[in-house]
Design goal:
By secondary structure, the protein is mainly α. The chain has 27 helices and no strands. The chain is 66% helix and 0% strand. The longest helix has 17 residues. The chain is elongated, with a radius of gyration of 25 Å.
Length: 495
Amino acid sequence: MSMIYEDNNRQAVPRCLPYETACSLGLLRVNRKIEQLYKPDVNNSNAMQEWIENRRLATAVDLVAEALIIRDFESSEAIAAAKLILSKAPSSSSLVRQLANHFLQTTTSRWTDPSNLLDVNAVRKYIARLKKSVRNYLYNPIAWSNLSLGYATVEQNEKAKMTMSVAMNLAKNNRYILRSAARCFMHLGEPDRGLAMLNKSGLCAIDPWITSAEIAISESSGLKSKCIGKAKDLIKDDNLTPFSRSELAVGLGTMEIKSGAIRQGKKVMRVALVEPTENALAQVEWVGSYFKVNFDDLFKLRSEVPATYEATAVHLYFDKKFKESLKASKKWGRFQAMSPHPIILSTSISSSLLDDDLGAIEIFDNAFPSQRNSPLAINNYAFALARIGRTEEARNKLSQGISDASREEVFTITATNGLVCFREGDIEGGRILYDNAVKGFEILQNYRSAAVATYFWAAEEKRVKSQGAEAKIKEAKKRIEQRNVFEYEDLVKKL
């Protein structure tokens, strides 16, 4: 079976975004209406002295990077260095110019809705440019951080860890670097390492971006957050901008709603809807769809907030506009290069709901390496392969996916192996596997997935014109209706 879209524990985990993208989305704005600058120490830095002694592009970049880290926006020397960068750096050095623009708080690039976001080859070229950049500007933590995210995207994980460690050593108290590092290490299977960085920074009590990251990563990883009390204080701080509190508000609101405090959860989440990030809006969209909670103004916000690919894809999916959801989820997949969720959703829609198996295969083949190791993404790819007759390839992929699968994912893969058997002519073997999958889902009380597995089982029985096909189709229709599996309501009527 191709997995239905069920993200049972979404949190507003920090996005893995290059510095340029974070700038264009406004994520590096000041937190407070009346800003109280916090200036962390920069150990063993000679950036100012080197700039004064030798006013060239390399020393200018190092000084401006340091000034951003320590939030010294009034330094006349740093301002001069930023202006030199803009006058001397070639137009191809977009990261360096973005750095200077951000320091001077001038208008930089605004987010546009591109028709074709980065692909794997573009990421590899980006890595090559960043490797050159860190050789030329050794003390630029932003370049090191961007390089780490690039390496993680193409599954060069040890290099990703090494380069992010360099970025952290250079700027361990910088918000952008901290959030990038914590999310990167979470992706690389070390969420505790990322959480330790956040907690040791000393910023959880004063910076809502850091507090929200700590809570979201803790909740997603099954770990206990140390910041709940601090978060509740920050939410009440009206000197903090609504934008800076949005991801923190959705994190706390989600926890309240999960605990059954719907009214209190909605009240907290409305703080986020004043001026949300796209990540916060996606969390509200998920909470509304998953817990059947209504929020006002989401339609307007989807059109006003930039890069709302996930929020739009999820909304359209639950509205049964699957072609439109697929279009948004493809962009979501390019925007969030380390998340398998858009690949799981888009392959499921393409193959199962739109009957386009070749389209699903193309989506998986063109996904970033960091997105293709998810057991469910692999399962959906194998499902599409089996349905076009490439059953041997499907079996091989399924054997790869099952090694890291959860119990629930194992039953999904079991059902897909049932499909493989049917397509190879092993009807009894297919029935046994489908039956095991359905019973397994029922043991886990995942009755929606049990209904979907029954639907695909019935479809195979009909395809081979078995004597039991009519009874299995009747069972599938009953299960789909009883469990409100809205995605398959129309499809099951056609069996």
